[in-house]
Amino acid sequence: MGLFLGLALSACGGSDETAETPRPAMVVHPVGGVEAALTAYAGEVRAREESPLSFRVGGNLTRRNVDAGARVRRGEILALLDPGDFSLQEQAARAELAAAEAELARTRGDRDRYAKLVEQSVVSRSAYDAQVAAWKAADGRVRAARAQMEVMRNQAGYSQLRAPRDGVIASRQAEAGQVVAAGQTIYTLAADGGREVAIGLPENRIREFSVDQPVLVELWNAPGERLPGAIREIAPAADPQTRTYAARVSLVGEAVNAVELGQSARVYVQEHGAKAALKLPLSAVQRGAKGGTAVWVVDPKTAKVSLRPVRLGAYGDTEVPVLSGVAATDWVVAGGGHLLREGVAVTPVDRDNRPVLAVPAKEAR
Length: 365
Prior knowledge:
Layout: H1 2-19, E1 23-28, E2 31-32, E3 38-47, E4 50-54, E5 59-64, E6 71-72, E7 77-81, H2 84-119, H3 125-157, E8 160-162, E9 167-172, E10 179-180, E11 185-191, E12 195-202, E13 214-219, E14 226-234, E15 244-251, E16 264-270, E17 278-281, E18 286-287, E19 293-298, E20 305-312, E21 319-324, E22 331-333, E23 346-349
Parallel strand pairs: 1-23
Antiparallel strand pairs: 1-22, 2-17, 3-12, 3-16, 4-11, 5-7, 5-10, 6-9, 7-8, 9-11, 12-15, 13-14, 13-16, 14-15, 17-21, 18-19, 19-20, 19-22, 20-21
């Protein structure tokens, strides 16, 4: 009987020991500080002035003198339309002007002759007035014909597409032999001068951004090197497809010379109201007392967890800023927190399942 009771007590003791075996718990340190208050947005380096270039008249594109990436000077001829029809139209306008001028000369002579005759009372005053009206009408036709000839002359000049300013051809949208319409884009010219980064700002945080707000720009091919910049403009309406607000970030000082057109970049923007907040993954957040928020924090001496209330900032996609409640050196449970209870012992591990704290040895019985 005594042996049976001893075995039973021994078995019970083994169950307690098994029940108290610490369970693994993935833990992390709150990260960030100043870095956590920066949100990155992907962007592309663009010219501050980007002009779509097109002909003011339609026609057959006979020659294309430059290609994408070419540097051009102001006034340089970039492309040509077939000038045949424009030359014929100009010739027709010249002929119309010549005929109108001949008619004007005739009516002027008739007016002058009738002026002398009316003084001699050879013709009536009404006949003279008719000649004056004919002369004025002829003069009006000359003016109209001259204006039409100038239009036709301009049309002939419009068959040449010239660069409006110095810059680089950013893109090309037409080929020689193609029939193009008036206003159809042939090239896109990136003018020399300012360089900017085009980004999209999220709809749910648009009120946190403002014009002239300072930012940092990091090129993809120069990681770790951040250039100063500022938000120059924000679109007044969101894009209907991406639901983001287009924004332009201008570069400051020598940063303009450090970028090239088309480069990919990250734009880091200071989060509103979180100047030096720490950040935790969303999986670490638990429901606290009275509907508040809390996190499980591991005591490094005992490896036991305690629920600590925290104050959080605006939730992000995967992380949330912690405004108060934890320090950067705390070990916070980032996974499986819903299975824990106050004072339970755990085996803290990192994301690679490696222990990060020595589990305290059990007290000798």
